[in-house]
Amino acid sequence: MAPSARPGLLWDTRPFNQGPLWEYEPVLEDVAALCREKLNVRPDECDISFLGEGCNNKVYLVEINDEKKYVMRVSLAVDPKYKTAGEVSTIEWLQLHTKVPVPKVISFNDSNKNSIGFEWILMDYMPEQSAFYRWRKMSMDEKITVTKDVADCLMDMVTKSNFNGIGTLQGPAPHRPGRIVDMDLCYNDHYNLDIPRLFPDPHRDNHPGLGR
Prior knowledge:
alpha+beta, 26% strand, Phosphorylase Kinase, domain 1, globular
């Protein structure tokens, strides 16, 4: 394992286990206190439980009086500031310009200088199940409907975007492409490489008619 200059982040460099590791865990009570502060609720009105995790994020379910639900996602600093800020900007752009269903962001912090020591996003809970788990049990008509819905969402994004570069979105509005956030560029010492992280759109530069 190689230590990282990015707080809270270690890298497993073994040949078959390469990936990010948590140097230390978020403290549940600190996460709960932060959620109560941002939602302006008392401790007896708010219940927080661990929901799941990926390689970069830990997710908590926030329930208010067994009625309203939120999701608190705590993230490793794989690309400090840019990853979290880019995710929030992408959600905001989708809400402003498309009909793609995305959660509303309640609050976020793209710095680890806060009471839990990690970047985080607090957002509405969307009570759905991944198609990954449902697909094999769905009828063909249901699969066709889902596929058409996904295609409609993709077409909506393509037709509503007029960006002149390739990168992760930056805000506030009007949102624009900025530094690319990608795990291959963030992995271990790749993060320190002096390489371009924003690229022009080749279609718009060379074939303006194809870019619109």
